[in-house]
Specification:
71% of the residues lie in helices and 6% in strands. It has 442 residues and is mainly α. It has a two-stranded antiparallel ribbon. Strands 3-4 form a two-stranded antiparallel sheet. α1 runs antiparallel to α3. The longest helix has 37 residues, at 212-248.
């Protein structure tokens, strides 16, 4: 049986990757629903109101499965990562508690009003409920990402002689520069996911020749918000995040680019295969000077390589980190191109008849999920081998009394349960998409 630490890490990685498939859609969809509900307040806005009702139902299904898959992660802080919780709970427990007590209950309460209260509330109060749902959803992201940002770039804390962390300055902790950049980047990425899903459903209806008014509306909203969000993910939010990594986690930046030797005028590598054993990047294809400029704003800036750091402080899996980063960046670039092309075709009135492009929009919706997953893998793999960067190693945060067999057993159980939940979720969402928006039966 392998080292228990490996199973603790694998179990948490599996549960959090699966769980985040759902919040990334709900956070982006919350903003889309607000846009639709706002447009529905205008004269003749019934089509937007109908679209909002449809996406509220999809939101509700996502939210329900997200809650179910999120609960086990909370328990894992006490079961698999008890030493981490005991040492850092005085800091990270603040925002985790705020997320559960305020943001989650705000989001769930107003979701119920959106689903069942439209006739009772009336148009304007129902729009206000959508805004409250959006605030709750995005506030939840604030608290979770602030917690993660402390692990990436710890600020606002003190540490006692016993090694236990305590919160010294709440506002320094919450306004962590890493948290602000990471939050903006993450929320735009969630909006990309929602935009691609909205566009995919619109393209599906258009290709089938059903619900044509709603298909046009979804394509309009989806492609426009998708183009804006895809650009904002890259710049300025992604650029700012990369500069923070360069300044505060230089070993992570080196691994992300497969860079072993230090030097100025560093190239950014488009493709290549990191060869850790030989400490080189095989078959690289790069663009000179660009990495130095993106990381530090100067073409002649020095960029450190992994050889500058003790090997024990390297990210644990350089190869996986490298490929995750390049998958994220590559897909993000393609998203901008696809949404720009779709927006151009819609502006010229060609999109409805451009069946290859409609097929591309319909089939593209899984790729933002892949890009988001790769992005979070980049962030978390880059932080390793630390739980709290530079202060607490991952090996020192695991529970000493939970052995590998118990963790493997529960991991198999989670995998089986999540498979059933996933199939049920896909069935219910598929049924809603085939049924279409209410009140539109051409």
């Amino acid at each position: 049986m392998a080292d228990p630490l490996a199973w603790h890490r694998l179990q948490f990685a599996f549960t959090i990757v699966y769980h985040y498939l759902f919040p990334q859609l709900t956070m982006g969809l919350a903003l889309v629903i607000v846009i639709l509900k706002g447009l529905a307040l205008r004269p003749g806005g019934e089509a937007y109101a109908s679209a909002a009702r449809f996406w509220v139902r999809i939101f509700g299904l996502n939210f329900a499965v997200g809650v179910v898959t999120g609960i086990p992660m909370e328990f894992q802080f006490g079961t698999n990562w008890a030493r981490f919780t005991a040492v850092t709970g005085g800091v990270v427990g603040q925002t985790l508690a705020l997320e559960g007590m305020f943001a989650f209950f705000l989001e769930s309460s107003f979701l119920a009003m959106l689903v069942w209260g439209e006739k009772t509330l009336g148009p304007r109060k129902h729009f206000a409920a959508a805004v409250a749902l959006f605030i709750g959803s995005w506030l939840s992201g604030v608290f979770i990402i602030t917690t993660n940002a402390f692990m990436q770039h710890p600020v606002g804390y003190t540490r006692g002689a016993d090694g236990v962390f305590a919160l010294a300055d709440f506002w320094t902790y919450v306004l962590n520069p890493w948290a602000l950049a990471q939050y903006a980047h993450n929320q735009m990425a969630s909006l990309v996911t929602a935009s691609f899903v909205v566009s995919a459903v619109g393209a599906f209806w258009m290709l089938r020749g059903t619900h044509l008014e709603q298909a046009r509306l979804n394509l309009k909203v989806g492609t426009l918000t998708g183009l804006i969000a895809s650009v904002l993910v890259a710049f300025p939010t992604g650029d700012l995040q990369a500069k923070l990594v360069a300044n505060h986690q230089p070993a992570a930046l080196a691994a992300m680019e497969g860079r072993f030797e230090s030097g100025p005028r560093a190239s950014i590598h488009l493709i290549g295969q990191p060869n850790v054993a030989q400490r080189r990047l095989d078959n690289p294809v790069g663009v000179p000077l660009v990495l130095s400029f993106l990381a530090f704003g100067r073409f002649n800036a020095e960029v450190q390589g992994l050889n500058d750091f003790p090997e024990r402080d390297w990210p644990d899996n350089v190869e996986l980190l490298y490929y995750s980063f390049h998958v994220m960046v590559g897909l993000g670039t393609m998203f901008i191109g696809l949404m720009a092309l779709a927006a151009l075709f819609r502006w010229r009135g060609w999109l409805e008849k451009a069946r290859p492009l409609l097929w591309a929009l319909m089939l593209a919706f899984p790729f933002p999920y892949i890009a988001n997953t790769a992005g979070w893998m980049t962030a978390e793999l880059g932080r390793q081998p630390w739980l709290v960067y530079g202060l607490l190693r991952t090996a020192d945060g695991a529970s000493p009394t939970v052995h590998a067999g118990s963790t493997l057993f529960t991991l198999i159980g989670f995998a089986g349960l999540y498979l059933v939940l996933g199939l049920a979720f896909l069935f219910l969402v598929g049924r809603e998409v085939l049924h279409g928006p209410e009140g539109h039966h051409e």
